[in-house]
Amino acid sequence: MGISFTVLSSGSTGNATVVRNGETTLMIDAGLSAKRIDELLGMRELTGKDIDGILVTHEHSDHIKGLGAVARKYDLPIYANSKTWGAIEKGIGNIAEHNRIILETGTHRDFGSMRVESFAISHDAAEPVGYNFYDGKEKLCVATDLGYVSDKVRMALEGSDVLVLEANHDIEMLRMGRYPWNTKRRILGDMGHLSNEAAGAALSEILTGRTKRTYLAHLSLDHNMIDLARMSVRGAMEDRGCFYKDSEFKLCDTYYDRPTPWDKVSQP
């Protein structure tokens, strides 16, 4: 059957993504209320009973807001590294011991034919991670909330058929925006969020022809726009000599208020 996925919600108001194959359905993060997550799942003909487990990227509230409630409601295992568990356990309430599962950074776990591998990213959290999903020759990579793309992250992204990659802000919109300077400095720093320009620069270095689609994720409501993100990322790629026709490579949108359509990793 291969891997398919939907980004249920993406942005500073809450994040959740569902990845599945014929055997397993996993959620990455649960950063909205349990009620809203149920609504979003329903928009993609799922319920919490269809989820087999929740993978956590880091402890910020827009990634774990509904984590405890969803896990308890549907008796779901939660997978996170030791430092992230230390950062979330007081905030998410009581979790049954059999559902507290450690998946250390840089290790993998097999769910039937789907392998999940975590990798370290740079963000102001205890031990933030991105995730790679493999099934046969297919590879899906999900990487948001990263201040910059290090050599190790670049290696983790390479060879993906599909990427879900952060394009959080337009630098000039952020600089001119209403946030206090210390917040702007945090977002712009190496432990903050990836700009449109930085996302495009990273893509120009890792695309080899295998990656067919990249979903631009975690857009700021205040300092970015969907059309601007797409245009800026493409422009940054072309400035570095990376030109692709839409038939060869496509930039796709994510939304804070609705899920993306189901997408099959293997589709042309």
List the helices and strands and how they pair.
Blueprint (H helix, E strand, L loop, with lengths): L3 E6 L6 E5 L4 E4 L5 H10 L9 E3 L5 H4 L2 H8 L3 E3 L1 H7 L11 E3 L5 E4 L2 E7 L8 E7 L2 E6 L7 H7 L4 E5 L4 H6 L4 H8 L7 H11 L6 E5 L8 H14 L10 E4 L9 E2 L4
Helix pairs in contact: 8-9
Structure notes:
The protein has helices at residues 34-43, 61-64, 67-74, 82-88, 151-157, 171-176, 181-188, 196-206, 226-239; strands at 4-9, 16-20, 25-28, 53-55, 78-80, 100-102, 108-111, 114-120, 129-135, 138-143, 162-166, 213-217, 250-253, 263-264. By secondary structure, the chain is α/β, with parallel strands linked by helices. It has a single domain (4-264), classed as Metallo-beta-lactamase, Chain A (4-Layer Sandwich), CATH 3.60.15. The strands form two sheets. The chain has a seven-stranded mixed sheet. A seven-stranded mixed sheet has the order 7-8-9-10-11-12-13. Helix 8 (196-206) packs across helix 9 (226-239). It comes from Paenibacillus typhae. Pfam families: Lactamase_B_2. Residues 13-191 form the Metallo-beta-lactamase domain. It catalyses: 3',5'-cyclic CMP + H2O = CMP + H(+); 3',5'-cyclic UMP + H2O = UMP + H(+). This is Phosphoribosyl 1,2-cyclic phosphodiesterase.
